[in-house]
């Protein structure tokens, strides 16, 4: 079980250098506020934090091309040749602008997730968390979606080189985990599972249920696409209808979780409707899966989340608590010391007073068979019935595409 070794928290103030621009939505203040909230709640008392080293070029090259790493290093210098190189590699865009010390900032993020992986691989920890990680959109040869280096893929590749050959990756960010899926889409040693807003309604437009992996890895890419407006009860129904079954069938040695919290109802860049309470329930579910299926080995990273004050710090403090085994009641008060700090940083934001949103995380479990009707808008039909029907249709799409490839019955709720 996970209490055989102390959990590990990976942290360095150097993470705050990953600041893409003055007004970019992914402001590292969210990381600073998370660690401050965790400290003010007493969560970090007696816990040693691991300070990471930067990922080396050799470690980055497990996933990224030499040309791309060179472009990241050269782009901030600002010369014509350097900018041309960057333009060929997804840099210098509104989403992923060129910024000072870009390589160094990306490398320390990747180094943090490698440090978490190393702590687990060496037996120093059974669980580890790096809230600075989760940059899951970066591709081998280009940056994308705020992500310069794909720390998650780099750490998974490191684990594959250090004795692991069954790794389950679970991504609960509102956006599809496209970069990690791309990195391992043909590798049967890695299962990538992503539950995200439907690709027809949100960037990056990938993560369809029919994306199941390639060649010998068919069945190891699993995608659950939920519609805008999906809240806690339906999201959790979808998660539990798919994720535990495929993970159990895969029999991983370790679970890696990307815990983006842009699925929150207040997030400015997406359209799902989860509460902090629902996100906390997802973290606890993934921890339970690691305990059940991977001898407690759980590596958790951050990801998206652009409610910089009201959402991310509370949600990721619950994530840190889950890793430490020190759960915080969502009804617990937010410390006044933290509220004063947050109010100073964001004077126009209503600072939360408790650690949850009062969300109801009860849900009805998927009970098998075909999706219920109606699946279209019909006058006189209760909206909740329509939403449930559509959610069950999404569940059925994923199960019917991937479950037979894993030897599971797509219509049997016991699978």
From TrEMBL:
InterPro entries: AcuC, HDACs, His_deacetylse_dom, His_deacetylse_dom_sf, Ureohydrolase_dom_sf. Pathway: Ketone degradation; acetoin degradation. The keyword Amino-acid biosynthesis does not apply. Residues 24-322 form the Histone deacetylase domain. One of its GO terms (molecular function) is histone deacetylase activity. Keywords: Acetoin catabolism. Pfam families: Hist_deacetyl. It comes from the Bacteria. The keyword Kinase does not apply. GO terms for biological process: acetoin catabolic process; epigenetic regulation of gene expression. Belongs to the histone deacetylase family. This is Acetoin utilization protein AcuC. It comes from Speluncibacter jeojiensis.
